[in-house]
Amino acid sequence: MGALDDLLVGAVDAFPRGRLEALLAQGRPLRVKLGFDPTKPDLHLGHAVVLEGLRRFQQAGHQVVLIIGDFTARIGDPTGKEAARPPLTASEVAANARTYLEQLGRMIDLDKAEIHHNATWLEPMDLAGVLRLLGEATVAQMLARDNFARRHERGDAIGLHELLYPLLQGQDSVEIRADVELGGDDQRFNLLVGRDLQATAGQEPQACVTYGLLVGTDGHEKMSKSIGNDIPLTCPPEDMYGRVMSVPDAALPDWWRLASARGADEVRAVCADLAAGSLHPRDAKMRLARAIVARFHDAEAAGIAEEAFVRRFQERALPLEIPDADAWPAGMPLSPLLVKLGLAATTSDARRLVTQGGVRCHGPEGTVETLGEPMMPVGPERVGQILQVGKRRFVRFGRPGTA
Predict the structure, then answer these.
(1) According to the model, what pLDDT value does residue 126 have?
(2) Bridge partners for 325 per DSSP
(3) Which pLDDT value is given to residue 86?
(4) 343, 389 in Cβ contact below 8 A?
(5) pLDDT score recorded for residue 146
(6) What angle do CA 265, 271, 275 make, to 5 degrees?
(7) What are the Cα distances from residue 389, in Å, to 223, 354, 396?
(8) C-alpha–C-alpha distance, residues 255 and 257, integer Å
(9) What domain range includes position 367?
(10) Is residue 219 part of a domain?
(11) 110 and 182 share a domain?
């Protein structure tokens, strides 16, 4: 049923200690649960970190159980949120959920998976059932969570429905009798609640496995479509390749560990070579981009995407090595921004470069825009784009700051 090291590639923790090993020692297929709330229509590479773990369990012969959280998505998981999430309607959730299975099928053999929608058992729950569930936790336990504690200390509103969310997710584990639940490292609290509810229901509590959170293409924030630093699983090959190439060098070790889906030995070797300086970040990034595109498309598409990327940079006279600008003052007018970024000596020098057509911005899909207004504000929509001044000065907009 799979060696432990092979199953846990990319995992941060497996707890309680020894529980997963004991389950594997039984020599039977385990019921391995993973839930997704369809709050957005697209899955991205951040989701794929945990999906890779699920794929490994499935390939080892275990029973994959997918939970489409069509009921819990209407509440919204408060994990990691500093404010209440806006509620979604049932129709919005249903529209988002329709795309999920096709995307999940890129990594999981859906013909061999169990697929459940948690509205099946949560929607019919009456008030007595809700009160019973609420009795399984205390307000103190919920407020001990970091995000709730911070909001409570600031005096921010915390809806009672938000406190209910971990219990509803935990009830999913009871309903499908999970042996193992997988989740992101920020899901630890929710996974433990599932264990508590299973014990109350007379079931053997599940083992929990958590995985690292992939930072987005900005290299700082957790990957999120709402931030715009994501790479959707449905991304076309050339776009996917280009977005991986925009990842800052400093984030490469984490991306290799979490997003490459390569073997542990190869990942360790790449990270060691990067740290030693014997592997150039550009080469490590191109190798990573090829691996990711091949994973979600195929090897031929990855080769074509790489050729197109190199050709596009050569044709646009762009170097393959471009420094990243982090915490740049988003919203600052163009001329003083050029000085701030070290691309012009003085504001008057910057104004002259702009008015003479010497400042361009390279956007997605090969677009090039000449920036001809010296005082135009440069906003956060430029993240990931390449600013060119003259023929030889370049910078890629990374994580923005404030003007």
Answers:
(1) 94
(2) 397
(3) 64
(4) yes
(5) 67
(6) 145
(7) 30, 9, 12
(8) 5
(9) 324-397
(10) no
(11) yes
